[in-house]
């Protein structure tokens, strides 16, 4: 094996051993007088895909932003491996986050966006993918809403990080592409941990290795679909 690749592999292994668990607890968050999160515990390890579910407005996006560090909480404890994270600056290389809203620059060609966002190996992989190759010479503003989302998902899934937080990836995505994305996330989870929220709960159930629901400001681990009915997240007819 080429020395460069060998050392890269060793570095990656050491990195993941050190950063082998994301641990989040003691999260409290209010907006004005409205308390949103009061009693949160969530963890994620390399190889895990945590499905984060909850009714509209229960605080899923808020929790992901707090873990990532892009919004302040009234209280939070986030630890990655042995490293206590105090916010966005600490997390930059460890946690990547795909928000609900588009983040692509409008006037830049897709191939340039990929080169700016990813390292050389990842860039080549993304450019070659059947779903992305036809878009390469178009500017982001010339893509449809679903195409933009697809590109964002690829950028975030392939980018180097120990943990990836994804908010509603399947919004506006055609069913056939959803299958490709689920496969991609499963493959990438060999190297990292994912926390994913989406109202398309069947897709979450397909992928997730564990399910956590937010209810009344707290998190609860879910073991079966029956529990999702009991917590009032899906109807009895589902
Ligand atoms: N910047 C803000 N200022 C005031 N209230 C906010 C703000 N952001 C979120 N909220 C409120 O916090 C609550 C939780 O919002 P959040 O977006 O985290 O919920 P969610 O579970 O992701 O919802 P959905 O499933 O509908 O996307 C909602 O009641 C929302 O109105």
Automatic annotation (TrEMBL):
Pfam families noted in UniProt: ABC_tran
The keyword ATP-binding is annotated on this UniProt entry: yes
Every ABC transporter domain range: 22-234
Keywords from the named record: ATP-binding, Nucleotide-binding
Stored InterPro entries: AAA+_ATPase, ABC_transporter-like_ATP-bd, P-loop_NTPase
GO MF, any single term: ATP hydrolysis activity
Keyword Nucleotide-binding: yes
SUPFAM superfamilies, alphabetized: P-loop containing nucleoside triphosphate hydrolases (SSF52540)
PANTHER family: ABC TRANSPORTER, ATP-BINDING PROTEIN (PTHR43158:SF1), SKFA PEPTIDE EXPORT ATP-BINDING PROTEIN SKFE (PTHR43158)
Name of the protein this chain belongs to: ATP-binding cassette domain-containing protein
Organism: Marivirga salinarum
């Amino acid at each position: 094996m080429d020395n460069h690749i060998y050392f890269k592999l060793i570095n990656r292994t050491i990195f993941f051993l050190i950063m082998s668990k994301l641990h989040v607890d003691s999260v409290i968050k209010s907006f004005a007088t409205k308390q949103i999160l009061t009693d949160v515990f969530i963890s994620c390890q390399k190889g895990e895909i945590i499905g984060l579910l909850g009714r509209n407005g229960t605080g899923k996006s808020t929790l992901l932003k707090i873990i990532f560090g892009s919004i302040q909480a009234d209280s939070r404890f986030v630890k990655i491996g042995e490293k206590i994270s105090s916010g966005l600056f600490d997390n930059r290389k460890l946690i990547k986050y795909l928000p609900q809203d588009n983040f692509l620059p409008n006037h830049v060609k897709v191939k340039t966006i990929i080169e700016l966002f990813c390292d050389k190996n990842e860039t080549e992989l993304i450019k070659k993918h059947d779903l992305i190759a036809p878009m390469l010479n178009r500017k982001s503003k010339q893509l449809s809403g679903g195409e933009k989302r697809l590109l964002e998902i690829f950028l975030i899934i392939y980018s180097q990080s120990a943990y990836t937080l994804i908010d509603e990836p399947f919004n506006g995505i055609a069913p056939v592409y959803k299958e490709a994305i689920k496969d991609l996330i499963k493959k990438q989870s060999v190297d990292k941990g994912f926390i994913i929220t989406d109202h398309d709960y069947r897709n979450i159930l397909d992928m997730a290795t564990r399910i956590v629901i937010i209810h009344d400001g707290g998190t609860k681990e879910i073991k079966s679909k029956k529990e999702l009915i009991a917590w009032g997240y899906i109807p009895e007819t589902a």
